[in-house]
Design brief:
alpha/beta, five-stranded mixed barrel, three-stranded parallel sheet, globular
């Protein structure tokens, strides 16, 4: 109880509710069983071996994919940073990495199930393995060996400090034909004084070194970045440095955020910049970004794209080229899950359109999946059988219980972050 109160504050509002923490989702069967008996269960603890935090629940847990062609693999949880504006450390704790073998085995399983694209994610992929004596490149060199022809790997966000040690290896990996030449590398601010107050543990010069190095070694690479407008200590001069960075690098993807004082963080106690100033800075950054059109010079190019999802307009499918640029292709069912050779005919701010020249590598759906929708489900059969058949739980009750536990957990997270 004291541990729960220390992490989540006053817990009176969850009295009588059953709640499962993010590290304990593999114990949902126990929680359902105890709840059916009228008991209240609260599992918040982190998984550990001795004093070392583990990555979390097993990667081999049953799951339902939002997109049957895309698998999301978390390679670690938590982080090593102490950013003054962020609550990740509070919510996720210290760094906890999954073993390389477990990640590779999960990759092998999902490719065998028909997945075409794997996203490796975490709060900070670059920090992977520092707690277990391995590194991100070691993981990636192992993982690329199991990626089938016609499938791709996309790396998630990494903070600059942790990739600086592995630039040469990362350039090799990002040049691999089955790895997207794409990296999400947040800068947040181009002023060193603001970065210091944010406790970001790198300088603008170090960030630029990473970008310049990768652009040289991996021609055409897409670098995405983030900025925060209106951090409490940011002056007009500080912000102008950020605007200059945006103008110089012309990032194809830029996430512009306004500073928000998250309760319990050091930055929340700092004197805030007036809201009208923050809005003005946000507009300035967005104006520069929207004036840049990175794909105009791509018209006429022949590219190879992997088609994995339906476009937001409902009339195209979305394919991604080697640099993870979004290419809209005609909506023909046979294209989904396959690679196409296309010619770019039109370019917008965030996308390109094309005509299909020929169909490249066609990936057959595994014979065990006569219904493509079954690709959404990974390892769920045994869990559902255990609950529905062995425990005499009807399907409606099972769904209601899972929904209820999910809503309760989301309510707790909301209260912990936004309560007065």
């Amino acid at each position: 109880s004291s541990g729960i109160n220390a992490e989540y504050g006053d817990t009176k509002f969850i009295a009588g509710l059953s709640v499962v923490g993010t590290h304990q989702i593999d114990r949902v069967v126990e929680v359902v069983e105890e709840t059916l008996k009228g008991n209240s269960v609260r599992l918040f603890g982190q998984k550990r071996i001795g004093k070392r935090k583990l990555g979390g629940a097993s990667l081999h847990l049953p799951k339902i994919r939002k997109n049957p062609l895309i698998e999301i693999i978390a390679i670690n949880t938590g982080c090593l940073n102490q950013c003054t504006y962020c609550k990740t450390k509070h919510a996720r704790g210290e760094l906890g990495s999954y073993p390389i073998d477990e990640i590779v085995q999960r990759g092998e399983q999902c490719f065998a199930e028909g997945v075409r694209e794997v996203w490796m994610t975490s709060e900070d992929t670059g920090a992977y393995g520092r707690d277990i004596g391995v590194s991100l490149p070691e993981l990636l060199y192992r993982f690329v060996d199991i990626i089938p022809e016609g499938c791709m790997l996309r790396l998630g966000m990494t903070n600059p400090p942790y990739i600086l040690d592995h630039l040469e290896d990362m350039a090799v990996i990002l040049s691999h034909p089955r790895v997207y030449s794409f990296l999400h590398l947040p800068i947040q601010a181009a002023s060193d004084s603001v970065l210091y107050e944010m406790r970001r543990e790198y300088t603008c010069e170090e960030f630029c070194h990473v970008v310049d190095f990768l652009r040289k070694k991996v021609p055409g690479i897409t670098i995405a970045t983030d900025i925060i407008c209106g951090f409490p200590t940011e002056t007009e001069e500080d912000f102008n440095e950020t605007l200059s960075l945006i103008e110089h690098y012309k990032f194809p993807s830029l996430f512009i955020n306004q500073f928000f004082p998250r309760p319990g963080t050091p930055a929340a106690r700092m004197k805030r910049i007036p809201a009208d100033q923050v809005k003005k800075r946000t507009k300035q950054a967005n104006t520069i970004f929207q004036s840049q059109f990175p794909y105009n010079d791509k018209i006429g190019e022949v590219q190879t794209v992997l088609v994995t999802e339906l476009a937001s307009d409902g009339v195209h499918y979305v394919g991604h080229n080697k640099f993870y640029d979004q290419v809209l292709v005609p909506k023909k069912e046979r294209y989904l899950g396959n690679t196409l050779n296309v010619k770019i005919t039109e370019a917008g701010k965030h996308f390109m359109k094309c005509c299909v020249l020929d169909e490249g590598s066609k990936m057959s759906v595994p014979s065990s999946y006569s219904n493509p929708n079954q690709l959404r489900y990974s390892g769920t059969k045994k869990l559902v059988q255990r609950l529905l058949l062995e425990r005499n739980i009807t399907r409606p009750i099972f769904l209601i219980l899972i929904a209820g536990i999910t809503i309760q957990f989301l309510y707790i997270v909301y209260r912990a972050n936004y309560k007065d």
